[in-house]
Amino acid sequence: MKLCKLNANSDVAALFHTLGVTREGSTILKQKAHHNLIYIKDLKTPAANILKQDALSIGADLAVPKDTITCKTALVDAILIANDKQLKELARKEKAQPFGLKEVALKLNELCVTCKNDFEIMGVINTNEDSFFQGSRFSGEAALKHIETMIGEGASIIDLGGVSSRPGSLSVSEMEELARVKPIIDLIYEHKLFEKARFSLDSYSPLCLEYALQRGFSIVNDITALANDDVARVAAKYDATVILMHMQGEPLSMQQEPQYDNVLIEVDAFFEERIAKAKSFGIFKIVLDVGIGFGKNLEHNLTLLKHHEHFLHFGYPLLFGASRKSMIDKIIPTPISERLAGTLALHLKAYEHGATILRVHDVKEHLQALSVLRALNQTTF
């Protein structure tokens, strides 16, 4: 007899198939193989005691502060440890419990979501001269050629920008932004490149977005997440997909000592609010972006990456964009031109944690890295 310890991230469905487990059995076993750690903030102390006992009764557990049982404080934070099957069972149990546990039950049901294995690469191109990565700046026919190259290398989405949103950058007028992006939009439309890939405009200008959406673009990449109602109206008018990105502050000052009580909970609350706003305007094609580097320090960025899968509970695709960003430099001092390796490390981890759209400057390298990672994940032994 021999025993082999398998990686926790193994494709259990493939393993069960190899063993000859029935499809019905595999469905049941997969729920037991995937474990979850769920942080619960401001849980009423009586609720924590009930949830602890209910969790233990089904083989799960709840980590709580030592004085929880005596109810010395009104509220406590806790960490639930449970597999997918246990989450569903707890959600059923807590529906009948007091002290706010009915709301916990609803949230647990939302969190019973698994990560997909597909991915899309969004290639970045900028028309402005002050974007932080010089290698993304193109104009005229050179821009058209670069777009065609990115599509050929595997990009299914192209994200065009005309205004820098790097830390410390200043906004420009709508007319100035339109003057920058209009020639590229016209070339894309003239050559019907929207038949080969989807096009996104990185903008929060209603004027520029309307111009792009009239000419084959289908995605609004709004770093302000529909702060402007006119952007919402334009997106709804053209039935566009909207990327809602979280940003604390604005580009000019966002990196001046950003602070959060709990970055996961605050970003989650922001998404909840902006999703509701999007729906109120008739926008239902939504992508979520945690906004790496937009009003966040290194610890905030790493926390959002490590727990990125949490945001799958909203039921929308997750976009992640850390391409060549300064968080790499803060981990290991590296000039922008040499940050591809760090970018790949961050983006591969993001993919493993639920991201299905990666916004990148280097398409070919990402396609290769992601293809190899997916092959590794799909290998049974």
From TrEMBL:
UniProt cofactor(s): Mg(2+)
UniProt record, GO biological process: folic acid biosynthetic process; tetrahydrofolate biosynthetic process
NCBIfam families given in the database record: DHPS (TIGR01496)
Reactions catalysed, as given in the entry: (7,8-dihydropterin-6-yl)methyl diphosphate + 4-aminobenzoate = 7,8-dihydropteroate + diphosphate
Domain Pterin-binding: from-to ranges: 119-371
Pathway: Cofactor biosynthesis; tetrahydrofolate biosynthesis; 7,8-dihydrofolate from 2-amino-4-hydroxy-6-hydroxymethyl-7,8-dihydropteridine diphosphate and 4-aminobenzoate: step 1/2
InterPro entries linked to this entry: DHP_synth-like, DHP_synth_dom, Dihydropteroate_synth-like_sf, Dihydropteroate_synthase_prd, Pterin-binding_dom
One Pfam family cited in the UniProt record for this chain: Pterin_bind
SUPFAM superfamilies, per database record: Dihydropteroate synthetase-like
GO molecular function annotation: dihydropteroate synthase activity; metal ion binding
Protein EC: 2.5.1.15
Protein name as annotated: dihydropteroate synthase
One GO CC term, this protein: cytosol
Entry keywords, A to Z: Folate biosynthesis, Magnesium, Metal-binding, Transferase
Keyword Magnesium among UniProt keywords: yes
